[in-house]
Design brief:
By secondary structure, the chain is of the alpha/beta class. Helix content is 37%, strand content 13%. The chain contains twelve helices and eleven strands. It has helices at 4-18, 34-49, 70-81, 104-116, 127-132, 189-192, 207-217, 233-242, 273-278, 283-292, 305-310, 314-325, and strands at 21-24, 53-56, 120-123, 138-139, 142-143, 165-168, 174-177, 185-188, 196-199, 222-226, 249-253. The strands form five sheets. The protein has a three-stranded antiparallel β-sheet. A two-stranded parallel ribbon has the order 1-2. A two-stranded antiparallel sheet has the order 4-5. α8 links the parallel β10 and β11 (249-253). α7 packs across α8. The chain is globular, with a radius of gyration of 20 Å. The mean pLDDT is 91.
Length: 328
C-alpha cells in the first residue's frame, strides 16, 4: 500500500523530470534584511533563467523563535521587489504544506525509515556532557559528539531519564560537495562533524533533517543559499543518500555585508527591506543595488526584477556569481 510519503516522493521525482526547481526558504523570526533579500533575488533569478519552478517555503520549525506577522511581511516585501513563485503559503501548490511547522507527519515518516535502517540512535547526553567529554574534539560548529550513546542499547522511548535527542550515525569516508559557485568542499563526517542531531529532545526536527526532506519532496533541483550554510551540506548529502533521495545542485552565494564590513543579521538589526521602503525607496532602486553588489548590473542602476531577468542568461548569471564568490 502506497503511503503519503511515497506518493509525495513519486510526485516530486516526476516534477524533477519535467523541469528544474528552485526555492527560497526564509525563517520568519524577524524582518527580511537586505542580505536575505539578495539571496531571494538570486534564487529567483536562477530558477527563472533555468526555466524552472520556484517555491516559497517558510522555515518555522523552532516555533518559540518565530515572530507573529513576519511571514506575511516577508511575502509582502518580496512581492514588492517584483518576485513571484509558483508554489507557496499564499498561493498553495502540489507539494505543500509550505510551512515547516505543518510538516511534522512528513518528517516523522522519513525518520521512521532511518530508524528501520538502524542509522539513528537515541542520545541522552546534554550539551554540557558533550562539552566536558575529555575525548570530544572541536569542529567548526563546536564540540564534536564523542559517541557516548552510539553503541548502547537504548530504547527509543522514555527511559526514566531525560528525553532523548535522535542522532544520525555517520559512516567513515569522505563526502564531496561540488558547488556551482564556490570550490568543492570535502568532509569526513566521522572526524569533522560526528553523529549529528536529526530530532531534538523537545521533539523539534533539526534543520539539517527537515531541509533535506522538504527539498526532495518539493522537487527542488537547485538550492541557492548563503555560503554560511556550505559547511552543513555534507551532512545533508549523507541524509539524502541514507533515504535514497535525489541530491540537488548547490549554489552557495556570498553573504552581504553592511557599511562596516559586518555580515548582515536579524540579531544585529541590519537594514531591512521594510526600512528601505519606509524611507521612500523604490523597488527598482533596491533590486539594482542588490544586483550591482554581485556584478549583475552597473552600480546605481535602478532595474526591475523582470528587466534583470531579461538582461541575463543562465551562463552570464553563473559567471557573475562565481566571480563575486572568488572575491568575497
Amino acid at each position: 500500500m502506497t503511503t503519503e510519503y511515497e506518493r509525495m516522493l513519486d510526485q516530486a521525482l516526476r516534477l524533477r523530470d519535467r523541469a528544474p526547481g528552485g526555492r527560497y526558504a526564509p525563517s520568519p523570526s524577524g524582518p527580511l534584511h537586505l542580505g536575505n533579500a539578495r539571496t531571494a533575488l538570486l534564487a529567483w533569478l536562477q530558477a527563472r533563467l533555468a526555466g524552472g519552478r520556484f517555491v516559497m517555503r517558510m522555515e518555522d520549525l523552532d516555533r518559540p523563535r518565530m515572530r507573529p506577522g513576519c511571514a506575511a511581511q516577508i511575502i509582502d516585501d518580496l512581492r514588492w521587489m517584483g518576485l513571484d513563485w509558483d508554489e507557496g503559503p499564499d498561493v498553495g501548490g502540489k507539494t505543500g504544506p509550505y510551512e515547516q511547522s505543518a510538516r511534522d507527519s512528513i518528517y516523522a515518516a522519513a525518520l521512521s525509515r532511518l530508524q528501520d535502517a538502524h542509522t539513528i540512535f537515541p542520545c541522552f547526553c546534554s550539551r554540557k556532557d558533550i562539552q566536558q567529554a575529555a575525548s570530544a574534539p572541536h569542529g567548526s560548529d563546536g564540540p564534536i559528539y564523542p559517541g557516548t550513546c552510539r553503541e548502547q542499547e537504548l530504547a527509543f522511548g522514555k527511559n526514566g531519564r531525560r528525553s532523548a535527542t535522535l542522532r544520525y550515525r555517520v559512516g567513515a569516508g569522505r563526502i564531496e560537495v561540488k558547488d556551482v559557485v564556490t570550490d568543492s568542499i570535502i568532509q569526513d563526517l566521522s572526524h569533522d562533524v560526528g553523529d549529528f542531531v536529526v530530532r531534538r529532545s523537545d521533539g523539534v526536527f533539526a534543520y539539517q533533517f527537515a531541509v533535506v526532506i522538504d527539498d526532495a519532496l518539493m522537487g527542488v533541483t537547485d538550492v541557492v543559499r548563503g555560503v554560511d550554510l556550505r559547511e552543513s551540506t555534507p551532512r545533508q548529502l549523507a541524509l539524502l543518500s541514507a533515504l535514497d533521495l535525489p541530491a540537488p545542485h548547490y549554489w552557495h552565494v556570498p553573504l552581504m555585508t553592511d557599511d562596516n564590513g559586518n555580515r548582515m543579521s536579524k540579531r544585529d538589526g541590519s537594514e531591512s527591506v521594510g526600512m528601505f521602503r519606509t524611507r521612500g525607496g523604490k523597488p527598482a532602486e533596491l533590486v539594482g543595488q542588490l544586483a550591482a553588489s554581485v556584478g549583475l548590473c552597473p552600480l546605481e542602476t535602478p532595474v526591475s526584477a523582470q528587466e534583470l531577468l531579461s538582461a541575463h542568461d543562465l551562463c552570464s548569471f553563473t559567471c557573475a556569481l562565481r566571480d563575486t564568490g572568488t572575491h568575497k
